[in-house]
Amino acid sequence: xxxxxxxARLDLAAEYRAKPFGRHSPELQAVLDVMHRPxxxxxxxxxxxxxxxxxxxxxxxxxxxxxxxENRVFTxxxxxxxxxxxxxxxxxxxxxxxxx
Amino acid sequence: xxxxxxxxxxDSLYAHPGDAVIVRVSVFDPAGRYTADLVRLICGETGxxxxxxxxxxxxxxxxxxxxxxxxxxPIGSYVIVEKMPQLGAVExxxxxxxxLPGKGQQAxxxxxxxxxxxxxxxxxxxxxxxxxxxxxxxxxxxAWHRVKARYDPATGAAxxxxxxxxxxxxxxxTEAKGGLPVVKPxxxxxxxxAPKPGGGTTDHFYGKLEAPVLRSGKLKARxxxxxxxxxxxxxxxxxxxxHGRTVNAPKRAVTAAKWDGSTxxxxxxxxxxxxxxxxxxxxxxxxxxxxxxxxxxxxxxxGFYAVKLQASGPxxxxxxxxSPRPGAKRAKLAVLASTVTYLAYANYRRRMTPxxxxxxxxxxPTVDMTDIVLADHPEFGNSTYDVHRDGFGVAHAxxxxxxxxxxxxxxxxxxxxxxxxxxWLDNQGxxxxxxxxxxxxxxxxxxxxxxxxxxxxxxPEYHSLEMLQALEAFVSSGGRLMYMGGNxxxxxxxxxxAHPGMIELRRSEDGTRAWAEMPGQYYxxxxxxGGLWRRIGRPPNALVGIGFIAQxxxxxxxxxxxxxxxxxxxxxxxxxxxxxxxxDFGAWGDGxxxxxxxAYDAHLGSPPHALVVASSENHSNAxxxxxxxxxxxxxxxxxxxxxxxxxxxxFFETPGGGAVFSTGSIAYAASLAHNGYDNNIARxxxxxxxxxxxxxxxxxxxx
Lengths: 100, 703
Hints:
The complex is a heterodimer.
Chain A: H1 10-18, H2 26-35, E1 44-50, E2 53-58, E3 67-68, H3 77-93
Antiparallel strand pairs in A: 1-2, 2-3
Chain B: E1 6-10, E2 14-15, E3 20-27, E4 33-44, E5 53-58, E6 65-67, E7 78-81, E8 90-98, E9 106-111, E10 114-118, E11 123-128, E12 131-138, E13 145-151, E14 157-164, E15 174-179, E16 189-191, E17 194-195, E18 201-202, E19 207-216, E20 219-224, E21 233-236, E22 244-247, E23 251-254, E24 275-278, E25 292-295, E26 303-310, E27 316-322, E28 333-337, H1 339-345, H2 357-361, E29 366-368, H3 369-376, E30 396-398, H4 415-428, E31 433-436, H5 437-443, E32 453-456, E33 462-463, H6 465-476, E34 480-483, E35 491-492, E36 502-504, H7 533-536, H8 540-544, E37 547-557, E38 559-561, E39 581-582, E40 593-599, E41 611-616, E42 624-625, E43 648-653, E44 659-662, H9 674-677, H10 680-693
Helix pairs in contact in B: 5-6
């Protein structure tokens, strides 16, 4: 089955990494729309463990506190968003996202 | 993880200089020790692009270490009838509309050791001293059933039945009978909960109950929930008059079994609204014991304050407003703190629930460790953006519990964002008072009469009719209004008199909303019609010239000046500003136009003579036209494609010599501090403040 995201479109990943917030090209937005669907979004969340430091987490049912995913701390929200993008890319394409 | 280990709340969201303040504190820290202090909050921004947290200590003799423990929060609504007579054999009946059958044991009627309840399987059961008989057939969720039970304390003989009311097919009447232990049914009588050994309640019911009847000998108590709907009273219409009361504000003015769509206003036919909707996660009063008591200095500056509590983790801020004592000398400018909106958002859990958050918001949700404490404690109740455990919207919010959003830091929103205005005013040396939505509701326009100008917060979304009328009267009598945000004057809220400290909200009809009110329930328990003020006939455009048009939570953008910004009427606004582009910077999203934004629309009542002096452009894909602007879904509604997705900065004069200035963006306030407070957004705002405080009357242009 053809993947929902074309793993060859590293240009779109590069566009996202350069600017996760703000205007995106229609093609990148189409990728994000797939990633953000309920079945693909992985219920990710960014948890600020102290001012200026975030960890990626997963939202849990019934209002429970998010489960922190791994012991990796981001000092910019953009880096946390990029990590979420990478995880979704891998889940949807089956391939690790590696940009030059 | 390092989380706050102490929380607290006050009895009011505002206080006056000289007032005594009671703080109710609960300590999770095993050491049971905490410190307290009073601080004036000046800036709440924690990101790399803002000035950072600013606060100043106020010496009130509070700063020391205290001993404390965890205080229980008795969440869950129910009915209690405290004074019950001696009971013999009992027969109970009522109508039941369960919303979570099969999701845990849920009590319907409790009489001491005797309980009529829904068992783990979702079937009706009767228990005495823990032994039970069950019909064995689960009730259907969201359908009305007649439930009956009989119990003879002389023999332990018991019978019960459940039967669907006409209206759906497939379920039959189900009966059960048997012998139960011999116990003595006794009061207090509880509905929708069971007494917990050692005190309190348990096994809360989710769903609606109607028309409970209790027979015992000559007693035939019949509680009619269609009476006194706008109170916390429960009336027994029998001669016995075994009146009761609700606890934790279950939802009233809800449709009953008889409701057939022939009326939508409970006051026109209360018999169609003879039900109460209970939730195990309703909360109107945490009921904690007082822990600290201190007095505010008589000369205390009006402003944003907090009692800062700290144990082993980070501090927990108990935010409140100090407003001038009635009759005290006033500044010319009042900042109207959006305390009703703060309350509507308080204890917002939705960001932490699974789901496609980014499809609507454009970025990942973010929370901090104080929010995690909220998740650790479901008993602190929900926000009006959440749904109850049974999926129904949360229509009530109370101040009588810890509030997790009235603090610096955290989500850059509401209270925290409004501190940007305070920080800027302090930096500019502009004198101001801070008054609150709650006072505006209580006092009306009299609260504002001595002020030349009123500045709103960044997101004054929720208003009662009294609040809107007060602002309209202020503006029409020559007052000057600075609407410093976006998506303001949007939803109606009411203040049910039976529940001090609580607001009620019905998300009726449509709107950009977290949940939808049920059909037939668009009228509040106060009798007022709920929903968007726009739908009720008072669109924000008429008051402030603009109304909600789009939202997005990924990035902000700039405004571009229009030709109207050169109109002689607008000259004062742009004095000293040469740039065409303004607000292309800011601590939220790098622009002054962002988060939730508003636009001019003459069809919705924006004054024809209003000048749109600047409009934002280049909003992102995440910004989409609000759904109340559309009759049907369509492509082409996002900020990259739709020219209507923009914030308008608007100025207009009013006939009474007053004027209105509106920014149309929540993110605007976060741009004021840019470049050491020296920037065109700060300049524009300063120009407005100076002219608005000048008594020279404004005059609308000749038509």
